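Input structure tokens:
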């Protein structure tokens, strides 16, 4: 109370009037506190308040405040108006107007100056009036006027003359006296000599009296130079050199050939009397002397008469180089009319796309690395362009059957940075006749001998014509040897691209079993791409231990420039695909492959142990994944694959010859899937965006684990059964699992830990469609009709068990129509069931629901009806209905028809 009064009443009185110091404020507070009540028993009286106010007034005396503590801002305006000032009226300071009645102004000074002591003192310190001088004077520092002239500014010696009239000073004249007088001109042929005389300017004057006035091109050979040249090479043309006689050879044992393209130094080899004249490295003179070229680098076709960019074939000249050693193909286009045949231990190179070998005759192989009866080794071909000569004005015109590079019976071959184009032509009238017309980019095959350790990298192959069963491939690796020891082994294709081909972009071929011919083994494709193939992006027929990694395939089977295979071989032709492989292709791996806009994505054949890892297929014309031949191989693996083309025909999985061991892991299927003969296959972590169909009597023991279904999984026929769905998620619009065909029993199927979310039914079975179905630990959520529904059990052992499942937000939980037997419905839980939790109805004459166990089922919350067994004209007997808890049901907790004389019904909460 004391504190509140202090701050709310008394202190503001002081604060609004005075700028009180903190120390003074504390003193006031202490004085006031002594007057206020010290506890709640005392009262505030008028006397105490007056005493406090008096105390405040005493402190308000100006003598009690420090200097400058009362600011004008603290003085209240009161009744003052604009223009007034404070005036002392003899008693107090009051607002008052000045003598003018407006804003204050200075008036006259009243009284005598003597009485204005302060003003008098201030005026005494000012300057007295200064008496004016004349216009020729200035006020000097000693406060006197003086004459203003040049002496006043310290320039008494300065003459008042203009610049042009100033005389030459003594110092300037002295300096000029030491300079050269005017020089009399000489002639244009003279120069000023040091003795100050004009003399004739010539070569003698500059010390060059012996120099001749001749241009560089006309200078003669000096005696010293001639002497030096006499010991050096002599420049000659080849024709001149070839015309040498004995005396010339002796006089000029070393010459320099000056022919264009053939420039170089030559020397006389006295020890050689047999070599023939080959133009490039050996010249035989008229006297029979052999001159040899000094070779310090690669051999060049120009030395042997091969000139680029003309109409003559250069294959003979180039072959001369290949026979001798490392060969350089210069800039320009070199025509060849025959195969170039590299020898062992050779390097052939050029300037990339600027160095072109162009085929100029049918059936020519630009580089033919093959020699009958001899194994070629250690050959490198790099940085060269190859023009096959075909398809000049259109795909039917030009050189036929051209090859870029052919390799057989060779080891350790390195082919890199080649551009190969326009090999072969399309047959003029019949598209499928490609033999002798179509071309090849690169061929590596063991037909003529063993091939081992071949590297093809950074090559670009484009426009390879074909259209039948033989020619038209970009890179073709094949066996076709009668000896299995000659299979092409260790062939590596890296960073290559193939575009616009009449058959396959990449091929591994051969046919073991047909004439015992071999096929490729340990062939590796990595980081390659291809587009626009009439047939396949990559075709293995046949291949063993082939690896394909990091490949992009586009428009395979949809490219019709050279021919349209669908119109010839039919719309289901399996080789119109991104990846194709044959029945004998085994242990192959395809990894990180993207296939788009192709006719088929992958056409699978019967080859075993093939693996597909991280394959992405999109925008296919017919199917992403198709059965290419009669079946797929055993132990086929699909892992991390995505088949993304929607609304296509169903993909068929078929083995049909016993255990398949098919493994599909973490894959996406956008179009339908059909199982037509899979035994012991497993699908794990897969997403099925469209319908899954099991429609063959040959299916057996297919496992679906942790898979997601966006449309139903449908059983359409009887099969061997024993299929399993474990931890799967069904988010379908109608049925989750659908047994759809009458009188087609599917046996011994297990559904465990699955979720059926939405749709009309979780599991739906028609009449006589299931036996021994086990449904365990599943969730049926939001099914609009029923979680589990059997349309007509027909007194069969349809269910072996329905156990430990959860049913929520459905009309009926379990609905079995007509008689069933040997079923065990146990430990299921029901929540928000608007119909019946468990319902077995329409039990007709001639059949009876027998040996049915309904045990320990429980309705949790918001269920309407519990358990119903409704007998129409039949019976139910030998049934055990025990320990069920339906007391939470709000409608009929149990409706069980009479009968069951040999069974029992006990310990239920109904």
């Amino acid at each position: 109370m004391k504190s509140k009064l202090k701050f709310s009443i008394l202190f503001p009185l002081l604060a609004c009037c005075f700028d009180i110091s903190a120390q003074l404020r504390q003193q006031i507070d202490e004085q006031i506190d002594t007057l206020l009540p010290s506890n709640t028993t005392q009262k505030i009286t008028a006397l105490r308040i007056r005493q406090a106010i008096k105390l405040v007034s005493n402190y308000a005396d100006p003598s009690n405040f420090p200097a400058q503590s009362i600011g004008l801002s603290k003085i209240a305006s009161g009744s003052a108006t604009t223009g007034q000032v404070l005036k002392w009226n003899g008693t107090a300071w009051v607002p008052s107007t000045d003598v003018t009645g407006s804003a204050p102004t200075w008036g006259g000074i009243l009284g005598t100056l003597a009485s204005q002591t302060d003003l008098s003192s201030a005026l005494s310190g000012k300057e007295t009036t200064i008496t004016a001088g004349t216009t020729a004077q200035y006020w000097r520092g000693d406060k006197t006027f003086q004459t203003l002239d040049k002496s006043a500014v310290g320039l008494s010696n300065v003459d008042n003359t203009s610049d042009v009239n100033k005389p030459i000073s003594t110092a300037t004249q002295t300096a000029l006296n030491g300079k050269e007088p005017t020089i009399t001109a000489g002639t244009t042929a003279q120069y000023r000599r040091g003795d100050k005389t004009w003399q004739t300017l010539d070569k003698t004057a500059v010390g060059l009296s012996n120099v001749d006035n001749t241009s560089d091109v006309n200078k003669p050979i000096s005696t010293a130079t001639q002497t030096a040249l006499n010991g050096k090479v002599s420049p000659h043309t080849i024709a001149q050199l070839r015309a040498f006689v004995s005396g010339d050879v002796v006089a000029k044992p070393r010459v320099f050939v000056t022919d264009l393209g053939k420039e170089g130094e030559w020397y006389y080899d006295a020890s050689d009397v047999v070599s023939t004249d080959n133009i490039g490295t050996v010249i035989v003179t008229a006297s029979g002397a052999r001159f040899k070229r000094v070779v310090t680098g690669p051999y060049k076709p120009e030395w042997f008469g091969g000139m680029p960019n003309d109409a003559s074939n250069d294959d003979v000249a180039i072959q001369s180089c290949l026979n001798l050693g490392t060969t350089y193909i210069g800039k320009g286009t070199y025509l060849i009319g025959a195969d170039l045949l590299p020898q062992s231990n050779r390097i052939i190179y050029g300037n990339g796309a600027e160095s072109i070998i162009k085929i100029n005759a049918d059936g020519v192989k630009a580089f033919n690395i093959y020699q009958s009866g001899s194994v070629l080794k250690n050959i490198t071909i790099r940085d060269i362009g190859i023009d096959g000569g075909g398809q000049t004005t259109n795909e039917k015109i030009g050189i036929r059957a051209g090859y870029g590079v052919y390799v057989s019976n060779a080891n350790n071959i390195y082919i890199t940075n080649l551009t190969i184009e326009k090999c072969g032509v399309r047959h003029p009238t019949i598209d499928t006749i490609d033999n002798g017309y179509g071309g090849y980019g690169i061929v590596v095959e063991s037909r003529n001998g063993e091939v081992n350790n071949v590297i093809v990298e950074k090559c670009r192959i484009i426009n390879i014509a074909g259209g039948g069963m033989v020619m038209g491939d970009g890179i073709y690796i094949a066996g076709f040897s009668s000896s299995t020891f000659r299979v092409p082994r260790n062939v590596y294709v890296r960073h290559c691209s193939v575009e616009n081909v009449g058959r396959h972009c990449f091929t591994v071929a051969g046919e073991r079993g047909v004439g015992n011919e071999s096929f490729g083994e340990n062939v590796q494709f990595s980081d390659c791409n291809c587009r626009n193939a009439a047939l396949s992006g990559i075709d293995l027929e046949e291949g063993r231990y082939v690896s394909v990694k990091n490949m992009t395939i586009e428009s395979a089977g949809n490219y019709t420039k050279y021919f349209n295979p669908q119109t010839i071989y039919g719309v289901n032709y399996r080789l119109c695909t991104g990846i194709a492989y044959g029945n004998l292709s085994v242990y192959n791996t395809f990894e990180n492959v993207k296939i788009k806009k192709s006719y088929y994505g992958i056409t699978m054949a019967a080859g075993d142990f093939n693996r597909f890892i991280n394959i992405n297929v999109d925008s296919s014309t017919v199917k992403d994944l198709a059965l290419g031949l009669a079946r797929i191989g055993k132990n086929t693996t699909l892992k991390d694959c995505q088949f993304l083309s929607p609304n296509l025909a169903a993909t068929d999985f078929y083995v049909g010859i016993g255990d398949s061991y098919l493994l599909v892991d973490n894959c996406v299927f956008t179009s339908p899937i059909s199982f037509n003969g899979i035994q012991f296959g497993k699908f794990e972590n897969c997403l099925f965006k469209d319908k899954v169909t099991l429609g063959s009597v040959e299916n057996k023991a297919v496992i679906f684990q942790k898979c997601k279904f966006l449309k139903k999984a449908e059983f359409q026929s009887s099969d061997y059964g024993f299929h399993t769905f474990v931890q799967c998620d069904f988010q379908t619009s109608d049925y989750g699992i659908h047994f759809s065909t009458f009188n087609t029993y599917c046996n011994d199927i297990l559904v465990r830990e699955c979720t059926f979310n939405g749709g009309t039914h979780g599991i739906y079975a028609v009449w006589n469609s299931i036996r021994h179905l086990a449904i365990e630990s599943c969730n049926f959520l939001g099914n609009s009709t029923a979680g589990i529904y059997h349309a007509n059990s027909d007194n069969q052992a349809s269910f072996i068990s329905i156990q430990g499942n959860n049913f929520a937000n459905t009309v009926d939980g379990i609905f079995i129509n007509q008689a069933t037997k040997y079923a065990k419905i146990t430990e299921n839980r029901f929540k928000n069931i608007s119909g019946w939790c468990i319902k077995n109805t329409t039990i007709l004459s001639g059949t009876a629901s027998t040996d049915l166990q309904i045990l320990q089922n429980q309705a949790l919350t918001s269920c309407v009806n519990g358990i119903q067994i409704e007998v129409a004209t039949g019976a139910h007997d030998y049934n055990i209905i025990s320990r069920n808890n339906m007391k939470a049901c709000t409608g009929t907790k149990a409706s069980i028809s009479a009968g069951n004389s040999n069974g029992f019904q006990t310990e239920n909460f109904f």
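Confidence is low (pLDDT under 50) at residues 1-19, 101-107. The CA atoms of residues 831 and 861 lie 5 Å apart.
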